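=== Structure Prediction Worksheet ===
Name of assembly: unnamed complex
Input type: mixed (protein and possibly other molecules)
Chain count: two
Listed entries:
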Amino acid sequence: MPQHVLIVGGGVGGTIVANLLARSLHRDEAEITLIDSTGKHAYMPGWLYMPFNHIGADDDQLIRSERGLLNHHVNLVTGEVQKIDTQNRELRVCHSAGLDEIRGTGGASEAVYPYDYLVLATGARLEPSDLPGLVEGEGKWHHFYSAEGSLRLREALQNFDGGRIVITVGGIPYRCPPAPLEFTFLLDEWLRKQGLRDKTEMHYLYPLPRVFPIETVAEVATPLLEERNVNYTIFFNTEAVDTERKIISSMEGEEFPYDLLVLVPPHRGARVIEDSGLGDEQGWLRTDRATLEVKGQQHIYALGEATYDGEVMCFLETGQNKATQLVFNYEHPPHPPHPSLYYHMEKQLFNRAYWHLVPQGFV
Amino acid sequence: MPELTDITIDKEIDARGSFCPGPLMELIRGMKALPVGGVLAVLSSDPGSAKDIPAWIQKAKHDYIGAFPEQGFTRFVARKAH
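=== Predicted Assembly ===
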């Protein structure tokens, strides 16, 4: 009898795990099923480039079918996990589409999937309601943390003719820590090209005692902000946004007026994690950092944004066709090289090569 | 600095084993949830906390009570002032 491995989430983490398991286990050993709510795989780092039109909305760099990325031994179920029953080791899933892909459910809209091993790669969700003013002010502030958000921001930038732009985060943790810095550098470059930089004051606000969580990276990024004439304020923990008066205020008692606000929305873990009681009150899972087994549980593992990660390699776009690279793990902080065209080109290449290397688990 | 035994701690958050910005963010989150006048303690084993935590408390204009070293970690104590 093969063991049932259920993987929840068809993002980068879930897809890699599914493909690696399918390659390393025989079908007599394991039946691998991946459950994803959309059946589509998004390349989230692409959203950063959309406001500047470097990547178009219909570019196939942004979204592809999950089925095409999965090893053919992996079953794909398109549906929303409603409940994680750790007692009986089963998931209740509400199917959203692609019923023909579901085996043995008789086309029912809801089904129960038993598991021997469960992998939670459920990612993070955006939760604007965690910050006062965001829900009421919908459409009057901007972000680049979804394809739709990036498109609206692109429109706002096209209508922008100078003024004060504030860039900040709605809370910590948020996915891709370098993204607000990268956005700032790319925006500076874009404004210069549009001839708007002289008419624009840019302000970067960050909750920590430096402009980036890791000190060695902050040491590289801070002089770059200064060089690009971007004002920055540290220890700014956003408390509220008043989209009518166009003012953002912090827990530390500071207020900044803006003409255009770009704010990374507050993040939480997946709702099903929050509802299941497996995580903390924000829906984040605690794991053993060596095995990624969820603390207090057996045969349940979590990875990616749903928990914390160890080995990391990422790029940091610094604008003006330059980038640097961060390589680090739990034990060793990154030592980013001087920003150069080389890393920018490597990142541009990676944006395309992603689809052929990452989901399959080759890199 | 007062003796730790003289202080009534209303809430204590154990952020040991978590690295920057973990303990500082736990403190900021904890302060947000605490009523004015409440005393918060955060346990941290991250050496960066010794600099970051007092600096944030000063910027946010809360009352810093002190850092109390223990075996392998430090207990940072502050009172919510507003």
